[in-house]
Description:
Elements (H helix, E strand, L loop, with lengths): L2 E3 L3 H6 L6 E4 L6 H5 L3 E5 L3 H12 L4 E6 L4 H4 L8 E5 L1 E7 L4 E6 H9 L8 E4 L3 E4 L3 E3 L6 H6 L8 E3 L12 H4 L9 E3 L6 E2 L3 E2 L15 H17 L7 H17 L2 H7 L1 H9 L13 H28 L13 H18 L3 H5 L46
Parallel strand pairs: 2-9, 3-4, 3-9, 4-5
Antiparallel strand pairs: 1-10, 6-7, 7-8, 11-12, 13-14
Amino acid sequence: MNGRPAIPPALRDVFRDFAGTVRHSSDAKRFDEDVRGKRVLLVGGSYSAEDLALAAIKCDAARIFVSARRANVVTWTAAWPYGKVEVLQDVVPVRVTEGGRCIGFADTEEREEREDRGEDPPVQTELRDIDTVLFCTGYAPGLDMLSEELRRAATVCAPPEELPVPPGWKMPPNALSEGLGEIEPDGETRVAGPLHPGLYRGAISIQNPHMMFMKFEFENPLFGIDVNAHLLVRYIVGSEIIPSAEEMVEREQDAALSLSMDNPWTRCMVDGNYFAAVDENWQKLFPDIPEEEKYEAMDLFQSDYEQSLEIRVLAQRMQEADYPLSFGSFQDLNETAAAYRKFDALTHNHRARLTDADMDNGRTFRDYRTGDEEDKLRSVFTGALAVPLEKRWLDVDANYSTIIEP
């Protein structure tokens, strides 16, 4: 969807008295001027913050700070070129002092708790002599050209509608099934409904199916957009029949039910019967794991499920879109899905494995080096290996036009 730069109003208020340069990440016309030789703060922890931090190193910024509300992309990186980047994790800017040159940060969780009570949070850490602040805070959908009714369709429902668990529902087999058996849901169990109750598959207006939206739903947005584009084209040309409004609502509610109830960890939070069964049968779960390690095993299981969830949703969309690549199905992922997941994990690992030697030599995760077979990036479409740059990424400029031969 068309977007406009988004800066949370609370952050705008914090930096109203800042004495230096303040811009959104989309405003890069004077980037070199804004960062060269300067002390720079990037607010936000995702890909745009990572990208601009590395670009600022290339432009010879004096020092770069990145504040991230939560663990995110910038927190994956173990070492930054020449040690020029410092990541402040789990903090948010809350005030500007000392004539507009000192920025105070509070703990994210404490700030939220204090805010709920109408209190100011204590400053946890401060940065002084900051010259430039760049908001890497994303974009908001630009839907002003649409009627209010159509805008509502694309808006996240907060909080989502609560849905009952339908009679006869059964949980798919999982790592805890053998120890627990089949557990009947608590009659009071309610699950969160669809985040976008007005949209089918996150794209088609249920009320007016001639209105379709292309959104960033997935961690790797370009791939997700391509899959969704194939699906929408099938509906537009008539290769796939758009379901009735009733069918769309039912399918979206079924999908929301799966998100809450197919995952043992999230089911524990909404289903009293299941929580009691896990508690009662704790000794039977993960029988080969020592007692003191079982909670860690449960956390790993939960993390594994969450990491595969996006791929499962993609697999379902790819099936419906008749996409040229298949990940299997939501419940049964295939080897290609496993290869994609490995590829995705490597994009994390190539950041996490950066060393002090890489830092001293100005290498980034983009300086891909072929190594062990398990560490090689391969296309899930063709199987082709990624090819390293011929020189360091920091040395690549706009005039670098060498064709890399595989």
